[in-house]
Batch of 2 targets.
Target 1
Amino acid sequence: MLSLRNISKSFGGVKAVSDVSLEIEKGDVLGLIGPNGAGKSTLINLISGLLAPDNGAIYLSGKNITSRKSYERARLGLARTFQNLRIYPNLTVGQNIEVAEISSQYSERKETKNLDEIIHVFDLSDKADLASDELSYGHLRRLEIVRALALNPLVLLLDEPAAGMNENETQELSNSLRWVQENNSCAIIVIDHDLKFIMGVCDKITVMNMGEVIASGKPNEISNDARVKEAYIGH
Ligand SMILES: Nc1ncnc2c1ncn2[C@@H]1O[C@H](COP(=O)(O)OP(=O)(O)O)[C@@H](O)[C@H]1O
Ligand SMILES: [Mg+2]
């Protein structure tokens, strides 16, 4: 579904992403972890087209999208959320979702059939008429994910979706993402610092450190990897 081949990106002298290759298939939930500054957000920005790589190629469903613009990638099936929330503060919750729904009309993909169910699963059904600034932080994060899902993505990119959530909310988010995996069969890449959350929700984990992939595997393989322990303890 999504394939990165030897992707690199430098900012001045900093190699933010260095020769990263990875593959994800339909229904995969891939966790992307690593210390601060490892290059995780940069990788998501390269996939979503906010940044252009210095080297390498990105394929979505077999199509080379490396030089496509962000909005073109969105139409082809890439949706994302941001580490810093991007909600329209002057619109209601329902209107925020509607904007995404309208955008999806320009997509090459069909509309999301189960959007009402998604809104319910992310606990926003009774909040449509609230001003978005009346939502708790945890619900704003959920709203971002629902908006991304309204684009009916093939691949959903989540940058720290559990940041600022309490343990209960994080557990609910974990259940909701599992539900999405089962019902919408999109591939998901999720960045987070909460290892318990990542281990619970992901089938595979890729670990980055200083721009490089240092380990990849199932959650239990990753938690026993010496390089991973070193990268974390080192920070
Ligand atoms: N727009 C940018 N300009 C300059 N340096 C950047 C930019 N974005 C990220 N970096 C640098 O690239 C490295 C990786 O950052 P980032 O991808 O945000 O890491 P992570 O999300 O893993 O914490 C860091 O050293 C960061 O300072
Ligand atoms: Mg980041």
Note: Strands lie at 2-11, 14-24, 29-33, 55-60, 63-64, 78-80, 155-159, 187-191, 204-209, 212-217.
Target 2
Amino acid sequence: MLTKAAVLFDQPGKWEVAEVELEPPQQDELLVRMVAGGMCHSDDHIATGDLPIPAQGLPIAGGHEGAGVVEEVGPNTPGWKVGDHVVLSFLSTCGLCRWCASGMQNLCDNGARVLAGVRADGTRRMSLDGRPIGQAAGVSAFSQYATVSVQSAVRCPSDVPLELAALTSCGVPTGWGAAVRSADVRPGDVVIVVGVGGIGMNAVQGAAHAGATVVIAVDPVEYKRDAARTFGATHAVAEMAQATEIARGFTNGQGADACIICVGMTTPEQVAAGVDAIRKAGTCVLVGMGKAADDVAIPVSVRHIVLYQKRIQGSLFGASNPSRDIPALLELYRQGRLKLDELVTTRYTLDDINKGYEDMRTGSNIRGIIVHDH
Ligand SMILES: NC(=O)c1ccc[n+]([C@@H]2O[C@H](COP(=O)([O-])OP(=O)(O)OC[C@H]3O[C@@H](n4cnc5c(N)ncnc54)[C@H](O)[C@@H]3O)[C@@H](O)[C@H]2O)c1
Ligand SMILES: [Zn+2]
Ligand SMILES: [Zn+2]
């Protein structure tokens, strides 16, 4: 079948909306009518080339934060039927590898293929004029329809709006889990969240959920600082230095229990400031990515790390398990204990994708989403 999708032909490049050929579902695959695709910063990193993808991935249909309705089921897809609502996890999980077996599905060996967006056998499900096209995270949420592996599919209760459920593919578990799991926030903790966009806002709600008594949001954009207060931040400031001072003020000079860095472009200096802001044996969680070219050195003192026993902790998908945590987050939403509606600032058509990303860069959205027409 033909489907309209936002495709990136080169890195760096711009998203181009094209009609691409989509294969029907094979063994272990579902055809999904995509309802919405969240505009995560990571897709912008792919477009700018800051997140290089393997050559066999290009061209690639974008979007890894999506949800939709099952239109067709391939062979060997037990439990799935036409009409089921589905969240497409940006990390697919095999259920069998060492990581899946250890409750670390986010580190599943399938991750080796996530950036190229190809099947296990290297083939692709999309093509344009005979040229194979990869699917971002194997999901391609910026496509009206997508054929996906069942390993990417998580069941969604039919009473959760799919536009909102899409955010539990990436942004919500990534931010929420960064606080709840990677930082292991405990009741009474003092937590700094640096960068409160689509990911960081969920780190704020995760920290509040876990019982932090002080949650300090740092963002240069005033509107996001105001929004952060409605997601559970007790303080919101424009500069990291102010946050560090506030955290020290609450801890007799010791520093924050955790600092969670969710900025769009993480710099080595921001990591150093995060490490400086935490207490002895505190945790600085890195969620946001930086320029590939900056992957060199973080200016932190080895002596401080050792003598103060501080921890720098990377966090992928909030160290969460898609098959456990996506349903749990959807249930928290159903119970009114997790905000999703308030995360969506602007809805775009697929044709307006580049405008949506421009708005993300200028800071006017917490999360923009593409709502597909069919
Ligand atoms: N680790 C993971 O699993 C994972 C998953 C998804 C996204 N990400 C990454 O997380 C980062 C954030 O993604 P997003 O979608 O929330 O992006 P976003 O653009 O919505 O949010 C980034 C926020 O950082 C703020 N910011 C910019 N400079 C800042 C500074 N100097 N100090 C404080 N705040 C600053 C911006 O105003 C914005 O609110 C990106 O790098 C993205 O690629 C990581
Ligand atoms: Zn994402
Ligand atoms: Zn696995």
Note: Residues 58 and 327 are 32 Å apart (CA to CA).
